[in-house]
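Per reviewer request, we include the raw input and output of the structure prediction for the construct analysed in the revised manuscript.
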Amino acid sequence: MKKTMRQLSVESSGRLAAVLLLSSVLAVACGGSDKPAEDAAASPAAPAADGAAPAAPKAAMTVSTAKPETASLALQLQANGNIAAWQEASVGAEVPGLRLATVNVNIGDVVKKGQVLATFARETTEAESLQGKAALMQAEAAAESAKADADRARSIENTGALSKSQIAQYLTQEKVTRAQFEAAKAAYGASQVRLGNTQVRAPDDGVISARTATVGSVAGAGQELFRLVRQSRMEWRAEVTPAEVGQVKVGQKVEVTSASGLKVAGTVRAIAPTADPQTRNVLVFADLPKHTELKAGTFARGQFQIGTSQALTVPAQAIVVRDGHNYVFVIGADSKAAQRKVETGRRAGDRVEVLQGLKADETVAVQGAGFLNEGDLVKIAQ
C-alpha cells in the first residue's frame, strides 16, 4: 500500500531529529575527550612554572684562540723608483768614411770584452798600411846609408881628408834621416791602428742595449754604432724625501720588487748630493744582482731595512677584512665573540702587527674568525 503524504512527512521529521540528536552526543563526547588531552599537554609545562632551569644555548661554531705576542719586527722605509743600467758604454766608429761590411750582434745579445761586434771594409786601410810600410823601409835604408857616411866621416875627422863643414854635413844628414825613419815608423804604426779599428770590439762584458749599425752604411768619425750595458749590471734609483733620506745609509740592504713581481735584494751604493729641482726628492742608488727579468727603464718599489722595533702581533688568520676595514674577534670569559676594529701595520711571516684597537691580555679568535659575527657564542677548540 502506498504511503500517504502525511506519513512520509512524519518519517522525514523523525529521521532529521535522530541525526541532530546523534550529532549532539558526538560533540559532547569529543568535548569531554579534548579536555584531558589539553590537560595532558599542559601538564609537562607545569614544572617550568615551578622554577626549573631552561635548556643551555648552543654554540655557533668551534674556533681556536690565541693571545697577542710581542715580537721584534724590522723597521722599513718604502720608496719608489726606476731600474736603470749601472753604466752604459757607447761603442762608435773610430775610422771615418768606411763602409760597414758586417754586423755581428743584435739588441739583447750578451757579449764579452774584445768580442768583434762589427767590421768595416778593409781595402782602403790595408792599402794605407802597405804604403806606410814601404815608406818605412825607404826611410830605414836612407837612415842606414847616412849613418854609414857619418861613421866614415868621424873615422877620418882628424886626418884632414875632409873639411869640417863636410864632416858636419854628414853628421847632420845622419840625424835627419834618423828622424825621417822615426816619422815613417810612426806613420806605419798609425796605419796599423786604423786597420785594427776596422773591427769594432766590445770595450767590456755586457749586453747590447741599442744598435744603430747597418750593413752598407758609411759611418762618420765618432758615430755611435752600439750601446752596451756594462757587465749587465742594473741599479735601482729610488726617490726619497729629504725628511727620510737621513735614515738611508751606504751599504744598507733594500728589497726591490720589479714590475713583474720579482723580488731581489739590493745594496745602497750611493746617495745623490742634491735633490731634484722638480720633485724635491733625493735619488738613492742601489746595486741589484744580475737577473734577466730586470729591465732598464721599468718601475720598481722597494723597502729599506732601517732597524727593528717591538710590536704587538697576532696570527694573520685572526685579521678579518670587512668593508675595507680590519677587525679581530675578541673572545670574552662568557665565550662570546666581540668584533673589534683594529689598525694593522707590518707583517712578519704569518703574523701581523696591531697598532691600535687591541690589548695584550685579550684573547682573539684565529681559525674560524672569518665566519663569526658580533655576539656569537663559540666553543674553544682544545
